[in-house]
Each structure stands twice: as structure tokens, then as C-alpha cells.
Amino acid sequence: MSDLDTHPAVRVCGGRDGVSAEPVHELIAGREVSLGTGHPVRRVLPTLGRRMVGAWCFADQYGPDDVAGQEGMQVAPHPHMGLQTVSWLRQGEVLHRDSVGSLAHVLPGHLGLMTSGRGIAHSEESPDPHPTFLHGVQLWVALPDAHRNTAPAWEHHTELPTFSAPGLDGTVIMGEFDGASSPGTAYTPLAGADLTLAAGADVRIPLNRDFEYAAIANEPGAVVDGVALPVGSLLYLGCGRGDLHLRADAAANVVLIGGEPFDEEIVMWWNFVARTHDEIAEGRRQWQADERFGTVHGYHAPRLDAPSLPATPLKPRGRAR
Fold first, then answer.
1. pLDDT exceeds 50 at position 321
2. CA angle at residue 95 from 92 to 101, to 5 degrees?
3. Are β-strands 39-45 and 265-269 bridged in parallel, bridged antiparallel, or unpaired?
4. 276 falls within a domain
5. Whole domain around residue 84: which residue ranges?
6. Total-model pTM
7. pLDDT one-digit tens code per residue, 216-258
């Protein structure tokens, strides 16, 4: 998925400054932005208050949206570098194409994992015909310096490990959770899980005390550690938790993300993750010159142009303020 902001800021994120060693409650409302042909999403990461959770550096929540008789998701070919994209659907279908030749139909419960590494281009679209509803999250993971120039790759996993507790059904999307490991390739210690709560659920789930965590409300109704989460919001939980209390009066869904605090500073701009402003500028130049990122074949519209860079780079900032 692309960040389609036509005036994206340069953000320096990461580092361990701003990582709470103790449990916290930091509720962040999603900011509504338009994606592709106007499809609305709620952006919960990065925000002015919170820029990373572990290596997770970007999160959009969308739906459930009735897209019957509409185009649904339509994101023309665009580049990525220095990151992984994680596609997770509750409802709907997304057709993925990329410049390494992948063509995949991502369905609910599938993990669509794209590693951009040194550079890849891709498109995402609701196929024609497509299901009535579109509902899910799109996440990015920053690659550590040792792996950020790795070869681009696509993984499509249709079977993922699951776990359960009274009133709870869970799926491990990325990394490790409660002893189960996702088949998706991870380059830093991560956790990503889909948590579906039945009406009346009241349960505790185990966490890694060394990880920081956040919960994204994919449906209304969840109460996480005593905090009611509006749909499309993120609750940052900090580190130092051995478990997490979840409750739901009505059926609800939460996506839990976490990981070891990312100790490298990164610069994020548009669809790029790098370490310096100059690397971002070179990536933009190469995309505009049709270099480095390859070609996506089969999409029905022209590729996206990169926005203009700001006149001067912003000052380095930590992962939170």
C-alpha cells in the first residue's frame, strides 16, 4: 500500500529514546486519509505522538466498507525501499502485482508479505468482481541496517498458526506469540497477532516483557487493559508487561503489534525508509527516472509519480514526542 500524501514530511524515527520501560496507556485516534481512488483509511502510525512500535513504522486501518458497485481499493504501481509491507484482511480481496513478477489474490486470513529491500514496485486493487465489503489493516516494518538492501521478495502464506482461549481466537500474523511462530520472514524480533473476541470475553494473554506493544481496534467493542478502543484507534502499551487483559461486551477484533524497541534511527518519507535525507532523494530520483525499482505489469492505469521533496530536511526527531 502506498502513502499517497502529496506533501509527505521527512520523519526521523527510531532509537530507544521515548520507549517506556513500564506499562503505559497512550490512546491515539486514527487520522482519516484517502487511498488511491479516494478509498478512506484511518492512519494510526506514524503520528505526531508515536512513530514506531518495535520495528512497526506504519499502520492503516480500513473498513468495514461497502464497496459493492464501487472500485474499492485501487493503488497504482509505486515504489518501496527499506521496509516490509504486511497485508491483513478481515473481509474482501486484494489483487497484488509487483516488479519481481508476483501475482496473488490476498484473502481474509492470508498473510501478504512483501520485502522491498533495495527496491520494489507494486500495485494493489480490488479485483472485478470483488466481495461486497473491504476490511483490514496494512502495516509496514522497518528493515534493520544489516538487511535493508536485501533482494526484494514476495511471500503469500495461506495457513498461519492459531491459538485460543475462552472467548478468544487468535492468529499469529508475524513474528512469535505464545510459543507459535509465523512463517513470514522477519528481520527483527516481532509480534503481530489478530485477536477475535466473542461477546462477553474476559481473558488474559501472555506477552514478552522485553517487547513494546500496541493494540489497533479493527472493530469496535474491545476493552484493552481497561481502555475502550474506538474503531480505527491505536493504544500504545509500552514495555514491561507479562500479560494483557482483554474484554469485550460485544464481538470485537483487535490487531496486536509489538517487538523489541528498534534502536536505529530511520528517515521515513512517502514510501521509503532510509537512514539519511540524501538516500531518500536518490530513491525518488531513481523512481522518477524508471531505475532501480522495476516494472509492474498488468495494472490498468499509469504508475504514481513521486511527490516533491521538501526544500530542506526536517530536524532529526525520536520515535515519540
1. no
2. 160
3. unpaired
4. no
5. 11-265
6. 0.92
7. 999 999 999 999 999 999 999 999 999 999 999 999 999 999 9
Total number of domains in the chain: 1
Residue 311 falls inside a structural domain: no
In the predicted structure, residue 314 carries a pLDDT above the cut 60: no
| Domain CATH for 255 | 2.60.120.10
- Other C-beta atoms within 10 Å of 55: how many? 28
Residue at 240 is within a domain: yes
Q: Are 41 and 80 in contact (CB under 8 A)?
A: no
Distance CA 98, CA 120 (A): 7
Amino acid letter, residue 13: C
Cβ pair 136, 106 in contact under 8 A: no
Q: Collapse the DSSP code of 60 into the 3-class scheme (helix H, G, I; strand E, B; otherwise coil) and give the result.
A: strand
Grid coordinates representing 119 are: 527496491
Nearest to 25 by CA among 245, 264, 191, 199: 245
Q: What is the mean pLDDT of residues 263-280?
A: 94
Asked whether residue 117 is domain-assigned, the answer is: yes
- The pLDDT tens digits for 92-115 are 999 999 999 999 999 999 999 999
Gap between the terminal Cα atoms of the chain: 26
User: CB count, 10 Å around CB of 94?
Assistant: 24
The answer to whether residue 212 scores a pLDDT higher than 90 is yes
What is the CB neighbour count within 10 angstroms for residue 25?
12
**Which of 185, 152, 198, 184 is closest to 292 using CA atoms?**
152
